[in-house]
Amino acid sequence: MLPHEPEIMLSELSQLLAEKTGLYFSREHWKDMQRGIDAATEELGFKDVQSCMNGLLSSALTKTDLEILASYLTVGETYFFREPRNFKVIEKYILADIVRERRGNDQHLRIWSAGCATGEEPYTIAILLDKYLPDINDWNISILATDINPLFLQKASNGLYSKWSFRGVPERVKHDYFNTVSSGHFQIIPRIKQMVNFSYHNLAEDTYPSLTNGTNAMDLIFCRNVLMYFEPKRVKRVAEKLRHCLVEEGWLNVSSVETSNVYFSEFKPVNLERYTFYRKSNNDKKDVPVNEHEFSFDFVDTGSQIDKTDVSLFEEQGAALILPNPEPEEKAFIPLAAATAENDPYDEAGALFHAGQYAEATEKLITIVSEDPEDIRAIELLARCLANQGQLVQADEWCNKAIRINKLNAGCYYLLATVQHELGLIDEAIASLKRTLYLEPERLLAHFVLANHFKTQGKVEESIRHFENARALLDNYQAEDVLPESDGMTARRLREIIELTLRQEAA
């Protein structure tokens, strides 16, 4: 601890962390922030906390720096079926709503656990779906789990947990979904493990929604006990971006201590059995159906709607609960205005797309394509709009139409591969990526995405080769250049991801 440290330095560090990681430490919790930095000093490469704090403020933070800081400043306290009544309501109303509309038609479901910590939440979601859907093999299910802390993600990927992660959970959950590895340790079964895709994602800095990182067209987003770490002005921005990640009528689930009509004013609040969920909806008359079946699991009712652990552990770390209103001097985050190029319908559609107004952009693009059925630019953007709205089959059709018009357009094959991946057509996606690289061997993101596919399949040599190809192609860009078709990702950010992945592969 450094009681003599000037307040200006602590204030600047607090602001730096808020900007780069989203983590917010108010004045009364600066000592806790300082304690975390002190603990990270050696790993960050400094001899003492004084030089560490000076170094953090005087040089650009790398992704590695942010990962180290996050590992000392975030809380990984979680467990399976945390706040079980929340999951009961989700099964009874929200899953019932989605399944009723899609069963027998387009049977897909996309869920994102943002701030997944050590993985108990996304695995809980996978277990719940496995229990709820008797025909689960007939569904295309995507569960994305992201966090800013790489140590958490590593543990989550391993899927190995102690008894502490099962407090309050029925014994049959452990029996049905875990293998006993040793006394007091349990391994998630492969079938459930394979349902979850873990990935690094920084809600403060990274792009979303994005086809590149799979954060688009979500039916349900869990962002529980995450936003309460953020400063008020950033909560509003993150909430708006999460809204764009949802399909129309999609759902956002935050914790009971994070509900706020101020921060989620663009959503429709829906009260379900004393819980407040937020829905991306323009339809005030749409009712939420009720699943008449009993909840899949039985738990002891603690009688508390709010998990007290959320508050006590959080206060222990020194962050601040969400304030009732944004800071007065901060303006609410407002999406970019769409009408930036009134004389060019395609540019208008592009502005709507980048503002997250996909339905409006789709209408304009359909008009453009009806007038010029071979406008490749409009068709590609239309496919992206449809994909971001979860209309994957239609997006696939438009991609194939673009390819029929121009079979030598590498960009169309790349976009088709992205859509095929989200449809669960992995072999077809790999084939489309290979066609992309045949036509354009230096298409950087195609190498990167193909490398990830091979990594998932356990084809290590092929994966490393394409990661290294992508890293070599990054030499053609400046660090802060935004990469083409990346939805805003910079060359620096992609290089950090590739180098981290290659280090993990080597290990």
CATH superfamily of the largest domain: Vaccinia Virus protein VP39
> What distance separates the N and C termini?
35 Å
Strand adjacency order, main sheet: 6-2-1-7-8-10-9
Strands, count: 10
Number of helices: 20
**Structural class per helix/strand content?**
alpha/beta
Residue-averaged pLDDT = 83
Q: Estimate the strand proportion.
A: 5-15%
Multimerization status: single chain
Low-pLDDT stretches are 300-341
CATH class of the largest domain: Alpha Beta
CATH architecture of the largest domain: 3-Layer(aba) Sandwich
CATH topology description of the largest domain: Rossmann fold
N-to-C order of helices and strands: HHHHHEHEHEHEEHEEHEEEHHHHHHHHHH
Q: Cα-atom Rg, whole angstroms?
A: 23 Å
- Provide the domain count: 3
- Sheet having the most strands: 7 strands, mixed
The best one-word shape is globular
Helix residue percentage: 40-55%
Describe the structure.
By secondary structure, this protein is α/β, with parallel strands linked by helices. The protein has three domains: 7-73, no CATH class; 84-317, Rossmann fold (3-Layer(aba) Sandwich); 345-506, Tetratricopeptide repeat domain (Serine Threonine Protein Phosphatase 5, Tetratricopeptide repeat, Alpha Horseshoe), CATH 1.25.40.10. Helix content is 49%, strand content 11%. It has 20 helices and ten strands. It has helices at residues 7-21, 30-44, 49-58, 63-73, 84-102, 120-132, 150-158, 171-177, 190-193, 232-245, 308-317, 345-354, 358-371, 376-388, 392-405, 410-422, 426-439, 444-456, 460-473, 491-506; strands at residues 108-114, 140-147, 160-162, 178-182, 185-188, 196-200, 218-222, 246-253, 268-272, 275-279. The protein has a seven-stranded mixed β-sheet with strand order 6-2-1-7-8-10-9. Helix 10 (232-245) links the parallel strand 7 (218-222) and strand 8. Helix 1 (7-21) crosses helix 3 (49-58), helix 14 (376-388) packs antiparallel against helix 15 (392-405) and helix 16 packs antiparallel against helix 17 (426-439). The protein is globular, with a radius of gyration of 23 Å. Mean pLDDT is 83; it is low at 300-341.
